[in-house]
Amino acid sequence: AQTVTQSQPEMSVQEAETVTLSCTYDTSESDYYLFWYKQPPSRQMILVIRQEAYKQQNATENRFSVNFQKAAKSFSLKISDSQLGDAAMYFCARDSGNTPLVFGKGTRLSVIA
Amino acid sequence: DVKVTQSSRYLVKRTGEKVFLECVQDMDHENMFWYRQDPGLGLRLIYFSYDVKMKEKGDIPEGYSVSREKKERFSLILESASTNQTSMYLCASSHRVSYNEQFFGPGTRLTVL
């Protein structure tokens, strides 16, 4: 089975600091999309950032950026200037071909004031 | 904005009961999905649907069925609820399976006693 692996079940970061969440994936496709989703406590899951595999440039959305290493099948999320509102479960996901998203098991991020 | 709603945020049922979880989206999405979310296991796909009256099994379909009579509505059915089906259930929708983000509902936390 093609998988998505998040090796850090939990992480913490001081407010205003930078944190990187890791994600590796397995796929036989050459064209696919990668996503990071955020699920705040008791709130709806929302998309944070999306990367198209054929694009070499790393995606950026305000304080959120990715480090996409296609050859290594690595897709890490960097959160800069962490805020209390960044505390959440973060899920990495892959979408390829005609199959639904495959999600990792998630990383719980705590932000310390 | 896309809106995905689920019929209940919290639900308590007894073992053996038939349980219906409803999901409605208002953006004319073709695809709808039901996931189960458990601590340490991430999101696991139960069933998905590409179109009205169509359904596909996901990774863990046993003990569940689905119904999609209208494009905007996707129902998850637990024919005979069991305690091991106590979980958070998330519904999602997207325009098409490939290369598009999924929009999630708020989730239903089901407890089976």
Spell out the blueprint of helices and strands.
The complex is a heterodimer of chains A (113) and B (113).
Chain A: E1 4-5, E2 10-14, E3 19-21, E4 24-25, E5 32-39, E6 46-52, E7 60-61, E8 64-69, E9 74-79, E10 88-96, E11 102-103, E12 107-112
Parallel strand pairs in A: 2-12
Antiparallel strand pairs in A: 1-4, 3-9, 5-6, 5-10, 7-8, 8-9, 10-11, 10-12
Chain B: E1 4-6, E2 10-13, E3 19-25, E4 31-38, E5 42-49, E6 56-57, E7 64-70, E8 73-78, E9 87-94, E10 103-104, E11 108-112
Parallel strand pairs in B: 2-11
Antiparallel strand pairs in B: 1-3, 3-8, 4-5, 4-9, 5-6, 7-8, 9-10, 9-11
Explain this structure to me?
- The complex is a heterodimer of chains A (113) and B (113).
- Chain A has 113 residues and is mostly beta strands.
- Chain A contains no helices and twelve strands.
- In chain A, the strands form three sheets. In chain A, strands 2, 5, 6, 10, 11 and 12 form a six-stranded mixed β-sheet that branches.
- In chain A, a hairpin with a 2-residue loop joins strand 7 and strand 8.
- By secondary structure, chain B is mainly beta.
- Chain B has strands at residues 4-6, 10-13, 19-25, 31-38, 42-49, 56-57, 64-70, 73-78, 87-94, 103-104, 108-112.
- In chain B, strands 2, 4, 5, 6, 9, 10 and 11 form a seven-stranded mixed β-sheet that branches. A four-stranded antiparallel β-sheet of chain B has the order 1-3-8-7, with no helix packed on it.
- Chains A and B meet through strand 5, strand 6 and strand 10 of A and strand 5 of B.
